[in-house]
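Researcher: Let's run the pair from yesterday's discussion. Sequence first, then tokens, for each.
Model: Starting with the first of the pair.
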Amino acid sequence: MASTGTYHHGDLRRSLLSTAVEVVRSGGVAAVSLRDLARRAEVSHAAPAHHFKDKAGLLTAIAAEGFDLLAAALTAAPAGGAHRLREMGVRYVEFALAHPAHFEVMFQPRLLHGDDPELSAAKERASVALRSGVEDLPDASDPLGTRRAGLAAWSLAHGFATLQLGGSLPALDDDPAETFRSLVGRLPAGDASEAG
């Protein structure tokens, strides 16, 4: 069994996470079970529990990985400039479309161990990256205005990504991220300063 050899090299956790992400992508969160992952990895049914304790632990690890991927995507947006927040929204949409399983798990806190330190740290890294997008806004000196602008921008990108992944948006062109960029660019100037 190749998987047993992989386990001894310390790669079983990564293998289980990757397999779980594929299961979520094809069948949703409800399709994930530790027993099924063990069968797929050809290891004992206790092996996944050794790494994750329970299904919530496995989903928490997926969510933490997702928040780290999101933080990296947001950080890759061009620094500075009036359009930075919009470009961060584009990166957010691109992240969601590239990692739909992570995206699905990340925002279901009732399925996760909310007190997990790795999850908390990853969420904070993503939050810091998101907050950095409002630094160049005209009202950045107003803490309440800044929080509202960040929330509006996040809601817009998250909502667009969720609708796109759910197949609820009409196909406007071949690139959903470009569609998002175009839609945000059409916002009236006053709204754009608040919503990014």
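Model: Moving on to the second of the pair.
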Amino acid sequence: MPRWTRALAAPFRRFGQATVRAITSLPWGSGGGSPSAVSAHSALTLIPVFASVRILADNVAALPLQLFRRDGADRQPVSFVPALFWAPDAAGDLFTWLHKCVLSMALRGNAYGLITQRDPLGFPTMIEWLNPDDVWVDELNPVRPVFYWQGRVVDRADILHIPWVVMPGRVVGLSPVALFAQTIGAGLSVTEYGRSWFHNGGTPPAVLKNSGKTIGPDEAEEISDRLSGRMRSRKPLVIGTDWDFTALSVSPEESQFIESMRLNASQIAAIYGVPPEKVGGDTGGSLTYSTVEMNALDLINSTLRPWLVRLEGAFTRLMPGREFVRFNLDAMLRTSVLDRYNAHGMALAQGWQNRDGVRALENLSPLPPGAGGEIYTIGTTAPAPPAADS
């Protein structure tokens, strides 16, 4: 067995030696709130829920993670990438790893990570996210909670727990799916009603009426087929006298169905704090942003920042004492080349950035030693490098 496989399996082997309680003594299926008729999987079949969770998980997972080291009041970027953020699990994909974490928090209110590998100093280098439905927490003593995974006690030192919204005196975060089961269930019911309504015929697209002659079933069917064929071919239908053709508009039932869907989408968007227009809801006002950059800035400030702060705090606790983790939010603020270069010029002129720092932001290597890349200048450009013969 390869060494990495043995290291990954070590925490799981320890569970075989733990005390196993009777299955009737704990609600093993309640890993983030009380069970409800709406499960996490069924909730995801509702488009506003899926869209809200996707917006959160995609945007958080796509942001670069950066490591810094505190030195008094200063903070310095760390050039190397910790193993935890290079190959965080057996799959070795940081994007998927972060995506799973946010998905667990958004649906079940908690993310539970099992630390499967550590470096020689004891810091985690691999963490596997567990299904929240397989985890139960005995929080009778919230200062020293006991974690169970599939009915077995897990050492607290081997669990990374990141809750979303936590009540005072509790450890486990509130589960949005359980807490808002009625709202999500209402959306599922409306969706099922619409599917059944349209499947069973709904409202006919038009009415063709003849008040001068009684039409039998066979004749009516033939006339209907002829009319449908002409409508599909966009050709006029030549018919006899005394016919009245009326195209039907959206019925009141259809209109109410659409409004119910829009209202439910807006409510779900409010739960997750995402812009309602991005999940099929209504903005409820005329506030709009004229640029993509302003839209991204609004999404960062109103939606993503609390999630990022929670994750940064949890990941920082896994690092050595003076090191801390931050997401690079500049990656979301895509600007034009001209705007970006103008911003770099201001940073150089005001002296709070040097050439090497600007080059790093543009994914360029530092200038050669002595070329002035490390020099900070205020109100002028960096001095030219000395001549080779001086």
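Researcher: Give me one sentence on the second I can quote.
Model: The chain has three domains: 3-180, 204-247, 336-390.
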